[in-house]
Amino acid sequence: MVVLRCTAKLLKRLKMGKEPIKDPEPSTTVLGDWYANIVYVDRRPLVLAISEKSLLPLLVPARNLDQLPDHLMRALVERIQRMGLPDTVAQQEITRMDPFFYGKTASRSVLGSLNDFAYLLKTIPRVHPDWGLVDMMDSLGDTPCSPLGYQFPSEKAEELLREGSIRVLK
């Protein structure tokens, strides 16, 4: 089970028929809860999501938001594959993401990192106008983050995913 903790702006955009869960159980995934917001890069709406435990960023177009869980899971699988981890690691994490719940943001620290990444995203097209979503996502993942002791989110996620897959094998 995984909780996508959305900002008020994203919750409004999702047009949810019901309120998000007030106090959801913690996620059972290795990467923890995910925090998400709508950001605009070159007037293009995107959903920026980051893992609570590793701050690993995912970027998906902000269309068909009723299928947001599928879009995020697909982006996560592709990101894990780009890290060079076995497909079984990605599959284990995706399996743990079922069911998928929506909640409100809870950690100001993670929300601060989400805002930092959103700010960085706005500068990327000026420096790298030819970059696509994958390039931007990978660049953010290779940005040292203070809450991680200046470790890279991609390295922290890889470390957590490797540890999580070892625990499953035991």
Structural notes for this entry:
- The chain has 170 residues and is α/β, with parallel strands linked by helices.
- It has one domain: Nucleotidyltransferase, domain 5 (2-Layer Sandwich).
- The protein has helices at residues 8-14, 68-82, 87-96, 108-127, 133-141, 153-169; strands spanning 2-6, 34-41, 44-51, 57-61, 100-104.
- The longest helix is centred in the last third of the chain and has 20 residues, at 108-127.
- The protein is globular and about 40 Å long.
Oligomer: single chain
- At CATH level 2, the architecture is 2-Layer Sandwich
CATH class: Alpha Beta
Distance between the termini: 21 Å
Report the sheet with the most strands, covering strand number, pairing sense and barrel closure. Answer: 5 strands, mixed
DSSP helix fraction = 40-55%
How many domains?
A: 1
The helix-and-strand class reads alpha/beta
Would you spell out the secondary-structure blueprint of this structure?
Elements: E1 2-6, H1 8-14, E2 34-41, E3 44-51, E4 57-61, H2 68-82, H3 87-96, E5 100-104, H4 108-127, H5 133-141, H6 153-169
Parallel strand pairs: 1-2, 1-5
Antiparallel strand pairs: 2-3, 3-4
Helix pairs in contact: 2-3, 3-6
